């Protein structure tokens, strides 16, 4: 391009303009501080809502009961300081349980208790199935682990289809990994016909303690009154160490349970596992095995079948019999409490074998015969629990008398023995 036709770019940004450097704010409007709140209240009917709120509050306070007169308040006796401290401690403990995984205690009105995830080994057995019923009814999710050696699927079939119930066919002598909050370890054949080598008490307990340690679950061991052997102390307290023959025909079961208690306490002391130990005395009720060799089930089944009631020895051996619902209540209180144990869970009402046979006769068949047989080896002569510790620390004691609980068991046994032949059974016992 030629120089004559070139164009010029003119920058006008530096043209001088008159600038006023002084700042002058807007003058304050008079009465602004008064009119602004008024306009706010009048906008969108806010004043109407305020008036309605005042009216509701007035009605509410008018309906409240009037405060006590000065004369009555003057005679008011404040609570003593020790009582206030006790109540404060109680509520702090209750709040701590509500927050923790193992929340127990009473839940304040309006706060729903969070269900726990609980595994019950041996949950298809006699005691285990009744425990499962209570836990499910309470709102917990329950996993039953059972190999059905002595348990029966029929004991828990009524929970099939419940989303809070699971059933796993598994032997606890093999490791098992589950995410749970609590473990009730009931798995172990406990009747006299199973007093032989069984690794459940030792290996199974070790596996379940290992599970409790891994997932931080609370562990409850169901031990037995057999740890006292043929006791030289009567009644038996938890502090009694027992009189067990380590090489007798019953020793595998007796010593197995004693070892299980040892392992449980070692995990508690050495691995900080939360544990509970229950020593269960003779228990009876529906769903017991028909022919497991226990004295109550033996007598009931024999009387129903019109067979002689077999009494071993002179029949003067004593036992204590608790109904299964009492035991389940004790186990749950122990698990939810703050005490490790061991705790005796049994009915201190003491019966000789002859007295028990007569109660069975009265309940089922007054004409039932009694047949004496030689006593078995190492059969304890006396067995009666001292439950003072459970009463004091758990607030537990049995409620069901033998003469009230036995008919419930008889009804269950009659149904299972005679099956669908109800008419014939009823005719036989008419």
Structural notes for this entry:
Helix 7 (251-271) links the parallel strand 5 and strand 6 (275-280). With 430 residues, the protein is α/β, with parallel strands linked by helices. It has 13 helices and 13 strands. It is an enzyme of class 4 (lyase). Catalyzes the NAD-dependent decarboxylation of UDP-glucuronic acid to UDP-xylose. Necessary for the biosynthesis of the core tetrasaccharide in glycosaminoglycan biosynthesis.
Primary descriptors:
430 residues; alpha/beta; 7-stranded parallel sheet; two-stranded parallel ribbon; 13 helices; 13 strands; elongated; disordered N terminus; disordered C terminus
Write a concise synopsis of the structure shown:
With 430 residues, the chain is of the alpha/beta class. It is built from 13 helices and 13 strands.
Task: Summarize the SSE layout with pairings.
Layout: H1 32-42, H2 46-63, H3 70-74, H4 81-99, E1 117-121, H5 126-138, E2 141-146, E3 165-169, E4 182-185, H6 200-215, E5 218-224, H7 251-271, E6 275-280, E7 283-284, H8 295-304, E8 309-312, E9 318-320, E10 322-323, H9 324-336, E11 343-345, E12 350-352, H10 353-363, E13 370-373, H11 388-394, H12 402-418, H13 422-428
Parallel strand pairs: 1-2, 1-4, 2-3, 4-5, 5-6, 6-11, 7-10, 8-13
Antiparallel strand pairs: 9-12
Helix pairs in contact: 5-9, 6-7, 8-10
